[in-house]
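Exam prep: given the inputs below (a chain plus S-adenosylmethionine), describe the expected output before reading on.
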Amino acid sequence: MPHDQPPTLPVPDAMSAAHSERVAAFIRKQIETSGGRVSFAEFMQHALYAPELGYYTAGATKFGEAGDFITAPEVSSVFGKVVARQCAEVMRQLDGGAEILEYGAGSGTLAADVLEALESLDALPSAYNILEISPDLRERQEACLRQRVPDLIERVTWLDSPPTAMHGVVLANEVLDALPVERFVRRGTGVMQQCVAQGKGGFEFVETVASARLASAVTAIEDEVGAQFPDGFVSEVCLAVPDWIADLSAALIEGVVLLFDYGVSRREYYSAERSDGWLRCHFRHHAHNNPLVLPGIQDLTTWIDFTAVAEAAVAAGFDIVGYAAQAQFLLAGGLDVEMQGFAELSLEKQLELSRQVKTLTLPGEMGEHFKCMALQKGTIAPPSGFSLADRTHTL
Ligand SMILES: C[S@@+](CC[C@H](N)C(=O)[O-])C[C@H]1O[C@@H](n2cnc3c(N)ncnc32)[C@H](O)[C@@H]1O
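Solution:
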């Protein structure tokens, strides 16, 4: 069945619609040259990252009120200030020359907030490197940093691949959720794979026998959760995670990786109630679950199986030194210190700041679904952001 645009979604303007049609044409070509279908991960890769066309690689607004979704750094600079405190804690324990590497820096807001806060803590890194696969976002990040922290811009470098032999902190806020995933369906004793084909009315899902890699990943998950999934159970597996973490491990000699994302443990991820998976689409702040419409102009994202991340990290030589809900991480990591001047603010500023902090910390907002996971190399003390509540044992 072709997937129609859900009726509640806003209608894209003419320019966006024309852009989406160009992305659709690109994907149709890929489908044609691949023999009539592409895997869902390939579809997601093209829709998000096709050169000069994809959602992240072309010029869509994406972040903030005028875009499609909002991330923690876009909610409030308090997020970056607390992250900066955690970076400072780690870097102070390392012998000089500590660096920060940020993956997928989005609009550049987090980089600017962290650099500003580290300057005021007298704890600037020797370098702030950004690894961003979108040329459009690199430009936006540079413009943001030139405007916000002109005196610190010479410390910032955009890399094309992870550095080698780095000491310091790696940051990735909502990057794992933007990695392409495969979708599978359990059919009796078989594991099927959802692929994407061109139908009469647009893109449509077609099922094929799962690739050997996907099928063995699904049966390994079933072995671990202790039962075969019921017939018709659909979910996702991010086969890209182990390589992504292995690259990180090859880059970092000593220090900490802080991963922020919405996600759960494997048991919750593959629980019976979640029989349609964790893939979500965002268009102009409307969340829905049809990834096949609006290619290139809507965000496609999945929640994270943090057990899979932890397993890949341990296999790559990291220690897991913390896993906490975002609210707990912020509270333990210095949110109270950041709020100390609250009483002196104008009423208007107080209201604004308390609204932002609520969004970052309330369980129904970003406080509970969003997690922070810390991976570490070396014998330094783990970041204090996990001192209130560490849920590593739940993974
Ligand atoms: C959901 S956005 C988050 C942006 C930003 N971190 C924030 O919190 O606002 C995902 C970001 O990750 C980038 N990205 C996706 N895959 C990546 C990869 N393999 N390496 C580096 N960046 C990547 C995207 O281009 C985008 O900047």
